[in-house]
Amino acid sequence: MTNLLWLQGGACSGNTMSFLNAEEPSACDLVTDFGINVLWHPSLGLELGENLKKLLNALTSGQMPLDIFVFEGTVVNAPNGTGEWNRFAGRPMKDWVTDLAKVAGYTVAIGDCATYGGIPATAPNPSESQGLQFLKRQQGGYLGTSYRSKAGLPVINIPGCPAHPDWITQIVVAVATGRGAELSLDEFQRPKTFFTSFTQTGCTRNMHFAYKVSATEYGQRKGCLFYDLGCRGPMTHSPCNRILWNRQSSKTRAGMPCMGCTEPEFPFFELAPGTVFKTQTLMGVPKDLPSGVDKAGYVKLTAAAKAASPAWAEEDIFVV
Amino acid sequence: MASENGATLKAIADMLADGLETQVEPFPETDKEFAEILLQLRQLDTKDLKAKLVISGFLDHPYGPDRQRCLECMYYLVHRKWCDLPELSVPVEPDWWCRLWRI
């Protein structure tokens, strides 16, 4: 059996909801097929009060092994570094995080808040929130740059707002089945298997991106959402258009822009008015261009693409 | 529909050729400024073609050292010769320009 403990800090429970919706494998499969013993989870745990404290103390003391420590939400340090704004089982949650991370075989941060700070860490960050090992792009976070779990790995970051259910369960299964050492992480400690390609990879609107035909309203079936509606698909690392949501869709497929929630800077531009769902431009040119493309190249590409675009690119080609 | 667009296109071309002064400057350098122009456009009667042209700074020729023009603008639909920006929604020629130009 692999012991898994899941705790929540500064969180909305979005990743819990996502996890409980997992299908490949499902949350139940983790228990029945992969030998994972969910010691406690905010939505599933049975223990309360003293019984919960006993369980947590058994883990921190080493009396009971903690194979996988999953954390959802930010580490809340307010007020003044005490963590008193987020108390749990008789003490600040951040103190539990400190002690549990020391004894964990693997530490897994789920969702944008736990990984990079996410929305709670948006300026002015009143809750003094941090991710487990990052604050936005800055490595360190709550546990510090040098933190390594007992298995010798840094915090495994599975970002997203929320993270896709299957990213969560598949990584947990990999760890539980002894393949944790094979996990290859990128510079932001995300598993490369999920976070090397872009959200744009597999986007059904790639033809509209190529021919520079823009969607101008949400839900439009024609047009690329990058040009006007703030889609960050070309700059965001995620498999959202390869491993579909609810097995059938994604934000871009539904005509809504990707918000780049798997990147450390999310939410971008600190949620300043006018920056959400609106491509930020400077003199008419997007401030953030597709990864690896420079301004001169982008302008040339645009001219060529517009001139070559076929008539069908302007039509709604999805006939019901 | 096509003939109606043709008539509108000609009407716009005539107004611009006759020297209609439009608000080419200031170019909206930021999204906030861009949004302010859109807000002005939304307050117009959708049939008020002249006001649309004035507020959006229409020109019947390319603009600036980079020779910006509708043809490269993201809102321009090449085959329909149409500006698809909802606040404008007018037929345009590829060599025209307005200050809501974006790529």
UniProtKB/TrEMBL annotation, chain A:
Chain ranges of the Cytochrome-c3 hydrogenase C-terminal domain: 198-268
Keyword Cell membrane tagged: yes
Principal place of residence: other
Binding, [4Fe-4S] cluster 1: 12, 113, 161
EC number: 1.12.99.6
Ranges where the NADH:ubiquinone oxidoreductase-like 20kDa subunit domain occurs: 12-174
Location within or outside the cell: Cell envelope
Record key words, sorted: 3Fe-4S, 4Fe-4S, Cell membrane, Iron, Iron-sulfur, Membrane, Metal-binding, Oxidoreductase, Signal
Record keyword DNA repair present: no
Superkingdom of origin organism: Bacteria
Coiled coil: none
Positions bound to [3Fe-4S] cluster: 240, 258, 261
GO molecular function: 3 iron, 4 sulfur cluster binding; 4 iron, 4 sulfur cluster binding; electron transfer activity; ferredoxin hydrogenase activity; hydrogenase (acceptor) activity; metal ion binding
Reactions accelerated catalytically: H2 + A = AH2
GO CC field: [Ni-Fe] hydrogenase complex; cell envelope; ferredoxin hydrogenase complex; membrane
InterPro entries hit by this protein: Cytochrome-c3_hydrogenase_C, NADH_UbQ_OxRdtase-like_20kDa, NiFe-Hase_small_C_sf, NiFe_Hase_small_N_sf, NiFe_hydrogenase_ssu
Cofactor(s) needed for function: [4Fe-4S] cluster; [3Fe-4S] cluster
One record GO biological process: anaerobic respiration
Residues reported to bind [4Fe-4S] cluster 2: 203, 224, 231
The protein's assembly and partners: Heterodimer of a large and a small subunit.
Family the UniProt entry places it in: Belongs to the [NiFe]/[NiFeSe] hydrogenase small subunit family.
Listed name of the protein: hydrogenase (acceptor)
Automatic annotation (TrEMBL), chain B:
Protein name per Swiss-Prot or TrEMBL: Uncharacterized protein
Species for this entry: Bradyrhizobium zhengyangense
Superkingdom of origin organism: Bacteria
